[in-house]
Every structure is written in structure tokens, then in C-alpha cells.
Amino acid sequence: MSTPRVEVDRDQVQRRTVAILTVTQALGGLGIAIGIAVAAVLAEEVSGSESKAGLAQTFQVLGTAFASYALARVMGVYGRRIGLVLGFVAGAAGALLCVLGGQLESLPVLLLGLFLLGTITAANLQSRYAAADLARPEHRARALSTVVWATTIGAVLGPNLAGASGNLAESLGLPSLTGPFLITLVATLVAVAVVGTMLRPDPLLLARELEGVSTTPPTGTSWSRVKGVLGERPAVVAGVLALSSAHAVMVGVMVMTPIHMKHGDASLNVIGMVISVHVLGMFAFAPFVGALTDRIGAPRTITAGGAMLALSMYLAGSSPEGSSWQIFAGLFLLGLGWSFCTVAGSALLTAATPIEARTDIQGAADLIMNLSAASAGALAGVVVGWRGFDFLNLLASVLLAGVVVAVVLARDTSHLTAASGGEPAEAS
């Protein structure tokens, strides 16, 4: 037969995989976004120090960084399902510790909880790659972006539940700022149940089987394979640069926005609205960004994202304390520029990496991306305390140099096709 059954099965499994990942991505987005809205404020309240408020996002991003690499290693051996389950379980434990840290007024316990909470983000980041495992090359960015978009459902809803969850916490005798983490706990446990029971067959293991890749663990270390791919494929380097630069810019500015608004007496609900608008920009337009990437290629999409990030920092940096149209517009564009760079960068490095090294590269890319963002988040509080929120935005704009270099490297890679960066012509 000209159309083997395995091809039909592949498409059916791909549709089912994307549907399941859409549900878990929405739950994970709800869990992490509602915590982001109050984490810095809770850290400031517990520690009594504005400069330590930035540690909240820093520890969460650090947790994401190390979990991204660890989960990718697990997935490389056991598949996507086991890795995602482990990520969500660790995130649920982190949510419990955040509640405990707030109740005990202990910054170390809170920071440990936020570190583990970062594994939810790591699981969500790996989910976008899982959506691309069985996707056809010309639709890779679209599949990846569909799962990224699903985060919108929970992430936009999450910050707007901050007030109600605070009332819930107070009714239980807990500090109001710990309420969001109770919601995180419930949402994450539901995600564990969904992915653990329904993500079968495993998309990565099936993709390897269909492409004739050995299931035997590869020789050498993960980092040796990463270095080999990075040295041979400029498109992969471009993808990593686009991801890490955009993420560092986004986290550095976003983490101090609630503090900037609080200094102008903005209410928790208004701060939550700004974060919702920001998250809307990050995720809601992802399908459009994915289709655009498939159509015009990753380099042009990354260029557009860099321009949006530059404009966002101008608007946010010129905003007065409290609530203003500049902070709403700036945070929206900050999220949208991040979306352009992240979807295109993820599709580019996935397309340019051979499947046998894909989890190694994906884990390393997310590790580098989040370590860069963690550094930016750690410095953000210090910079704001020293020179203010406007200077933070000016300083963050320097990081856009990484996006420029990414575009140059990606454009120099002529052996890639336009679709999602395409498949390397020499790839097996």
C-alpha cells in the first residue's frame, strides 16, 4: 500500500497528544501565573526588604532552569509522560512549601518552595517540545505554538483569582498572599492525573520508533552531544540565543513591575490585571506566531519579536508608579515580543537538531534560557533599589544584542527551509 497504516496512526496520535497537552498546559499555566502575581510581594512582606523581593522570581526561574535539564534527561530515556509527571509532582510540593513559608514568615522556606514551583514551568516548556515530536516539518511551529497558546486559558485567569484566593486563605487562617499557592496545588495535581493516565503512547518514544532511531541510550555525556550539535549547527545556536535573550529581558522587567505599581498604591487586583495582560501577550497569539513562523521563517519572526521587546521597555520605563496606560501597553508588548522570539526560537532549534540529540539540546536550551533569566531577576531588585524602574528597562535593552546575533546566525544558515526554520538538508 502507498499509505502505510503507521502514517495514519502518527497523525491520529499527534492530534490526541496536542489535545492532552493543551489541557495540562492550561492547568500548569493557571498554577504558575497566579503565583507570579504575588510571589515578589509575598517575598517582600516576609523579608521586609525590597531588594530581596526579586529573589522570588530568581529562585523560581532557577528551579525552572535546573528542572528543565533534569526533566529533559529523564525524557530522553523514559519518554515525555514520565518526565511531565515528575515535573508536576515536584511543582505541587513547591506550592505546599510556599504556603508554609508564608505562614511561618520564613524566607528560606518560601524560596525553596518557589524553586520547586519552577518545575511546573519546566514541565510546560517541555510540553511545547512534546507537541512537536510527531508533527510534520511544515507544521512544527504551529503544533508547538498551539500548546504554548493553551497556557492563556489558565494564565490569564490565574492572576485575576488573586483576590478571591486571598479570601480563601484568610478563611483557613492563612496569610492572604498564600491563597494563590493553594490554587496552584489543586491545578497541578489535576495536571498530574491527566498526563499520567492519558499521554499514551508516548510521543517522543513513538517518534523515535517511526524514524528508526535506536532506543538504546546514546554513548557519551549529554553535554558532549550538546557541544557537538552547537558546534556543527549555527541554527541551533541561534535558537538558544533567541530564547535566552528574550526570556532574560522579559523576566528582568516583569518581576519588578508589581513592586513598581505597589509604590504608586496600585491595588492587588489592578496588579493582577497588568500581569494578566502581560500573560495574554505571552500566550494568546501563539498560534498566529506559529503560523507566521511556518510561513516566513524563524529569522524574520525573531526580528519582529526583538522590535516589540525594545518598544515595550521604552513604554514600561517611562510609566509612572502605580497604574497607567504605559505599564499596561508595555507589559503586553513585553509578553508578545517574548512569544515571537520563543515560538520561533523553539521551532528553529528543534528543526535543526537530529532527533537522537533533541532532548539533550532542548534541555540545555531551557537551562541556559532560565539561568539567563534568573540572573536578570536577581539583579532587577538591586537595580531598581539603586536607580529605579526606568533604569532597569534601559539596562535590560542591552540584552537585546543576543536577539540581533541570533537573527544573523539564523539568516546565515541557508540550508534550512523557511518552515519553522526547516529541516537541515544534511540531517538524517
Q: Radius of gyration in whole Å, from Cα?
A: 20 Å
Report the principal-axis shape: globular
The whole-number mean of residue pLDDT values reads 85
- Main sheet, how many strands, which sense, barrel? none
Helix content: over 70%
Order of helices and strands: HHHHHHHHHHHHHHHHHH
Tally of extended strands?
0
Number of helices: 18
Task: Please characterize this protein's 3D structure.
- Helices cover 79% and strands 0% of the residues.
- It is mostly helical.
- The chain is globular, with a radius of gyration of 20 Å.
List keywords for this structure.
disordered C terminus; 79% helix; mainly alpha; disordered N terminus; 428 residues
How would you sum up this structure in a few lines?
The protein has 428 residues and is mainly α. 79% of the residues lie in helices and 0% in strands. The chain has helices at 5-47, 54-78, 80-104, 107-132, 140-160, 162-171, 179-198, 203-210, 222-232, 234-254, 257-262, 268-283, 286-296, 298-317, 325-352, 358-387, 389-396, 401-411.
